[in-house]
């Protein structure tokens, strides 16, 4: 069975808050690939997982294959899934057809579309993204253990006085910007009723966007509802469909917080 390494507050927690790992979680479900989740923390990532994988710069998501091979980076994993499970629906075409039947040009276009969204809404870089900054106080509350907190709040990780700066940001302004980020999604769904972002069926673009939603939902359900669910019926319906997909996998995790 494939192992999916997932950031969580503790080894027994199912509060999976990494937006990038959610992309892979949904991709594995999309391809009907069996997997087990292995919760880890930031120190595990830099310690045990880096040693075992032989990759000092390993990030999450990371999957470990039964033969001990590690693959990390959500987009690389998506491409690996696309190539290795050709009988399952393509992650990049949005038409629900198997990867083996997809035209290369169609797949290439879908990949470029997904990569564009990945670098925008899917990113957590403060230079242009609001999500990490906005939900930082909630994430901070999930980091437990003295050694873990020392690393999480350190200047070496966040820059000089980075921890204090993040906590001092204007939450109201960040919330306003987050809602603006979501508005194009609402407009797109209004222009394409009863469809997904990837096409007539969900795909990697949907899982990138849903990963961002799930990150928010895992950290602050009330604020998430204000930013995401209350911006328009179309987006709320899309969230419901993705949450209930694959036997309600995501919804089950949300409900068990």
UniProtKB/TrEMBL annotation:
Domain (GST N-terminal): residue spans on this chain: 17-83
Record's protein name: GST N-terminal domain-containing protein
SUPFAM superfamilies: Thioredoxin-like (SSF52833)
InterPro entries referenced in this protein's UniProt entry, alphabetically: Glutathione_S-Trfase_N, Thioredoxin-like_sf
Natural source organism: Rotaria magnacalcarata
Pfam annotation, one family: GST_N_2
